Structures are given as C-alpha cells and as structure tokens.
# Entry
Amino acid sequence: MSSGPLPERVDVARLFARNGRIAADLPLQRLSRLVPYLADPEGHAEVTLHFGLDAEDRRLLSGSVTAELHLTCQRCLRSLNWPVSSELAMLVFDTREQLDKLLRLQGISDMEHDVLVLDEVKGEVVGDLAGAPKEGGGAKSATAFEQELDIQALIEDELILSLPLVPLHEDASCSQEWNSLKARTEAEEVQAPPKPSPFAVLAQLKKGGKPE
# Structure
C-alpha cells in the first residue's frame, strides 16, 4: 500500500495487476474546480483506494474519501463546516465496447456499481495506442498497454457531488442577527392588518362608493 500525497495520475493496468492499494492525502488547494465553492481551501481529503476484483472477477475500484469542507452559509454568510464521507465502488473498463459486451453476455441493462470507462474520462494512453498496428503486423490488445487515469480529477468529482445545493446552517447555528430579523419579520406579518381584496374594491367602485 502506498501512502503520502495522492499522485495526479496512476497506471491503472499496473495497479490492478498488483492488487494495488493507495492511502494518501489530497490538499484541497490543488482542486481548482472545487476551490470556488469553498470559503476556505485549507485542509485536505483523506483518500483510500483499492484496485482489485469483485466476486465475478471484474475490475473493481473501491475505497473512500473523507474531508471537512469549509463552505459559506447562504443565510448568515458565515463559515459552515461540511463533513464528507463518501464510499467508492466502480467497475472499470478500458472501452465502451468492453462494457457493452459484458452487458449483452449477462443479459442486463444496468450495473449494481458505478461504471468507469477509461477511454471516456481524462486518461492518457502511454506507449502505442490500443489497436494501432505494430511493426511486423498485429496489434496490441486493450489490456496490453499502459493507461493512466487522472485520479485527482476522479476524487475532485466525488467531492463536488457531495456539496449541498444551498449551504445552510441549522437555524440555531446561524447568526443572532439573522434569527432576530427573522423573528421580527414573522411578528410583523402576524400583526399586520389583512389587505383588502382587489375584487372587493372593484365591486365597491361599481356601486358608486368609495373603497374602504
């Protein structure tokens, strides 16, 4: 199991071949797409990943991501701590054709896990491209070449998906000023006299009277 800072990219084929494990920290400041959502980008995400096989010998990337994100409450505009604890479990395929073939063989239209198709994400093929003719004829199989995966982007996606639609404290945790304003507004709404119906005013005018 490797530990330390999370690498930006990993060699997927090699990690699966070695039943690889990664335990690493990912500084939030490195996540340029996540940072704009944060009130404070300090801190890091703790990442554990396992590149193994499931019960049916399919490549399964599993693990967890934990972090505490510092957001801004949209009610009181103060800091809001948002804990994240997300479990990962996704079947990994080199190509869409591999996935479609498995689905046809199993006679199902959906998977019990999330699916990661390497040639459809931010990956990079190292060496000869799959299917490219080699000198002397023939071609490399889809599993014979190295393919790197932007693992940092994958974790960043997971953190962004964990964000609340509108960050809000519980009412009791918001600023005292907000709670006081809310109470005053609710009291004024209760005490305010009811507004006359516009239809009642129109009927009064038709009778030649003055609206009350």
About this structure: The CA atoms of residues 13 and 143 lie 7 Å apart. The first strand starts at residue 2 and ends at 5. The longest helix spans residues 176-191. The chain is about 25% helix and 30% strand.
